[in-house]
Amino acid sequence: MDGIFLYGMLCHSPLLTVVTGGEPLRLTPARLPDHAVHWTRGDNIPLLIEAPGEVTDGLLLEMPSDEAMSRLEYYQNSFDALPAEVDVETDAGPARARLYRGRGGEELAGDRWDLAEWVARWGELTLVTVQEIMDDMEVRPASEVARRFGPMRARGQARLNARQVAPSTLRRTARPEDVDLRRRSLVYSNFFSVEEYDFSHATFAGGRSREMNRTAFISADAVTVLPYDPVRDRVLLVEQFRAGPFARGDTQPWMLEAIAGRIDGGETPQEAARRESLEEAGLELGALHLVSQYYPTPGAKTEYLFGYIGVADLPDGSARLGGLPSEDEDIRSHVISFDRALELVESGEINVGPLILLILHLERKRDALRAG
Q: Would strands 288-294 and 305-311 be described as parallel, antiparallel, or unpaired?
C-alpha cells in the first residue's frame, strides 16, 4: 500500500490538519481514473461515484504515523465511510492506495463537486465542527458522531457567530491572552453538551485570578420571533410543554412563548426565524425587525439569542396546532390582541424572558409599526 487517496473536503489543507493532528504530512498530487466527485443531493458533502472515462483529482497521502492514521480512521468512521483499495496515477507513476467513500451511489449524486465553492460556503463551518469531533475523539465513539452531527454543526455555527466583534465602549476589551485555559473536558454530549473548564483570567486590578473550575451548558445559537399584525394589532404566541420548568418542579410546565428554535449550521438568523415560523405556526412572515441579540443566562450557558418582531397577517382563524412530528413537537398557537399580551405579562402568566423582552420592545415600537 503506497498511501491514502484523498479527495473532496480532505484536499482542503486546513481540514486535513485538524483531522490528522497537525503533524507534517507527505502529499503528492494524484488522479483516480473512472471516477467523479459530485455533491450529495440535499447536503454539502462530496460523493465519489464510478464514472467511466472521467478522472478525479486528489492527493496521495504517504502512510502517516500511527496516531495520524488513527485520527483519520476515526474521522472516516464517524461518517460511516467504507475503505477500498484503488489504483491511482501520480507524476512518478502508478500507485496502490486506500480510499474512503460514502455508502451512497449515483442515486444520491447532485451537481459536480467544486472544492473552491465548498470552501467559500462551508469551509469555516466544517473546520469548527470537525475540530469538536476530533477534540472529543477519546470520549465519543465514532458511531455516535453521524447521528449527532446536526447539533454539532449548529454549535459550530454558533462559534462562527461568536467571532463577530461586539461593542466594548464601557466594558473591558478582551485580548486572547486574558484567559489561560488549562483543561477542557467533555462531560456529556447529545443534542446539547456539557463541558468543564479549568482556567484563570485577567482581573480588573491588573493581576490574574486563581485557577478556577467552571461548567458550561453548550447549545446552538437560537432565534425568537414575535409575529405582529400591525393592521389588527394582534400578536401570535405559541404554547408547548417545556422540560426546564418540569425539571424545576413547576406545576405549570406548559409555557406561553414566542416562536423559537435553533439556528442550524449554514443558516442565518433571519432564515431560521422564517423557517421556525413555518414549522411551529404555519406562518409566512413579512419584514423582520431585529430587537436585540444577547446571552439570556451567561453565567453557565452558551445560548445566544437573536430576537425579532415579524410583521404578519393574522386574521381570525390563524391559530392552529403545529410543530414537527419528527422532533416530537406539540405546539398550539394563540392569536390575541396586543393589550391582552401585556396583561399576560403583568399577571405573570407569560413568564418566559425572551417573550417578555419582545412584548415590551413592541410596546415601544408599536405606534411606528402601525403607522407603516
A: antiparallel
